[in-house]
Amino acid sequence: QVQLQESGPGLVRPSETLSLSCTVSGGSLSDSNYYWAWIRQPPGKGLEWIGNVYYTGSTYYNPSLKSRVTISMDTSTNQFSLRLSSVTAADTAVYYCARLFPTSGWYYFDSWGQGLQVTVSS
Amino acid sequence: DIQMTQSPSFLSASVGDRVTITCRASQSISRYLTWYQQKPGKAPKVLIFGASSLQGGVPSRFRGGGSGTDFTLTISGLQPEDSATYYCQQSDTTPYTFGRGTKLEIK
Questions:
Q1: Which residues of chain B are within 8 Å of residue A46 when distances are taken between CB atoms?
Q2: What pLDDT shows up at residue A95?
Q3: Across chain A, what does the average pLDDT equal?
Q4: pLDDT tens-digit map of A13-41
Q5: What is the pLDDT of residues A94-110, one digit of tens each?
Q6: Cβ contact (<8 Å) for B91 and A108?
Q7: Residue A76 region by backbone torsions, left for phi larger than 0, else alpha for psi between -120 and 50, else beta
Q8: Rounded to whole angstroms, how far apart are CA atoms A73 and A64?
Q9: How many angstroms separate the CA atoms of B61 and B74, rounded?
Q10: Closest residue of chain B to A108, computed from CA coordinates
């Protein structure tokens, strides 16, 4: 049973870079059957897909965030990371890491971390 | 981006009732539709993928249907533990997008 756990600072100052990590246990980032994703949920709002990384290192980003986002992975530690630059209060959200499962052409997030609240404030 | 519109945004029903939540895509997404359940303070959980395929471990009272632009999630024989917010998500085209959610209250 794969488990994902987010880690990182809960408070980030405006204009700085948000950096989060996701540690995967019970599964491997090198598994070609999955992608690894970040999703966020602003307070009281719905879910927003940020982007994915594949075991090859290929990345896929939401165009609305693409200019500010970097997702990377470290297979030696089985962790993948999110960097979001030039943050504002609008980036305040619960950030989830998740596993994206492509099956028969359907892509869905089949395992999630518990979520990490990140607040952007001075 | 493909817009996903859910209705209603809030639903109140009693134990044992049957309820239906709808999700409409702004363009055809074939059957690339997933339903999630999210309880307060928890991560979303997959209920249905491929519009109508039940995820392992999910009770059979959850049923998904539809194709193209119009989809439904039906919950039969409501249980108290079904109180949650339900989201649809399309995976036809990136960026993957979610509906704004339907909050289900059990009276």
A1: 87, 98-101
A2: 97
A3: 95
A4: 999 999 999 999 999 999 999 999 999 99
A5: 999 999 998 877 899 99
A6: yes
A7: alpha
A8: 22
A9: 8
A10: B34
CA distance A74 to chain B (A): 24
Nearest residue on chain A to B52, alpha-carbon basis: A106
For B31, phi then psi, to 5°, come to -120, 25
**Tokens matching residue A97:** 């890491």
Burial class of A105 by CB neighbour count within 10 A (0 to 12, 13 to 18, 19+)? exposed
Distance CA B107, CA B101 (A): 19
Asked if the bond preceding A14 is cis, omega within 30° of 0, the reply is no
Between CA A54 and CA A50 the distance in angstroms is 14
Identity of residue A40? R
Q: Tokens 């928890």 — which residue?
A: B42
- Name the nearest CA neighbour of B92 among B21, B33, B11: B33
Q: Nearest CA to CA, how far is A109 from chain B (Å)? A: 7
